[in-house]
Specification:
Number of strands: 3
Number of helices: 2
Largest sheet: 3 strands, antiparallel
Structural class: alpha+beta
Order of helices and strands: HEEEH
Helix content: 25-40%
Oligomer: single chain
Strand content: 15-25%
């Protein structure tokens, strides 16, 4: 059975897409903690985050960092 994230990626469930590449997808959270709260997920369905391969984890982290400029600016916390 497809997860809610898979349904969002395929367009079965609508979302406000921020970015997408061949292996990752970013969209605004439907219940955000703060304006601009964005979820970044892999397109490969996994039961748990820790089940990701090292390569998939690295792709997701690079993707997340690469698209942070598309959301609202953040303030540095000292």
């Amino acid at each position: 059975m497809a997860s809610i994230f898979s349904k969002i990626i395929t367009g079965e469930i609508p979302c406000h897409k921020i970015a997408e590449d061949e292996s990752c997808f970013a969209f605004l959270d439907i219940n955000p903690n703060q304006t601009g709260h964005t979820l970044c997920v892999t397109k490969k369905e996994q039961d748990k985050f820790l089940d990701l391969s090292v390569a998939d984890y690295q792709k997701l982290m690079f993707f997340s960092v690469s698209y942070t400029h598309l959301t609202l600016p953040t303030k540095r916390i000292v």
